[in-house]
Amino acid sequence: MSDSSAQATSPLGRVRSAADGPVLEFRRNHTVPLAELWAAVTEPDLLARWIGTWTGEGTVGGTVRFEMLHEGEECPPDEVSIVACEPPHRLAVDFASPDGPWRVELALSGTPTGSSLRLTQRLFRPEGVAEAGPGWHWYLERLASTLGEAGPTAAWDDFYTAELRAAYQALI
Prior knowledge:
With 172 residues, the chain is of the alpha+beta class.
């Protein structure tokens, strides 16, 4: 990658095949304890530091309003259905989309040196990797930064480059 996408300091995600379409997957290790990682991905005030915030009941089977905060443009809140919530190990949500729900799952576990996170998103089309991959990559780097494990993350427009999108598309 050239300097324009050298902002990505963590490894690319991967794409695996599933019966209902491709699945984008990221695995990240963190130095913080599992409880701290769980809080960072579920508590509205902590979530707002790296991706966005939510309001609503927040129970399995319920819907919350989720608002992205950091891409540089105002995004209207999304209705997000909570499919599963098993603290501090699993969270699965469905984002509404024209193609059908985007299922995003987080699996967290403790490790001898902290904790780990696996994020997966089912995609409807293989070309969706070029859109979703760089976005989740950026947000996971922001998460590491807010946990004190990495330096500042590049701005969205500097990170979400054509070259990085091509690198993700090449994973198909």
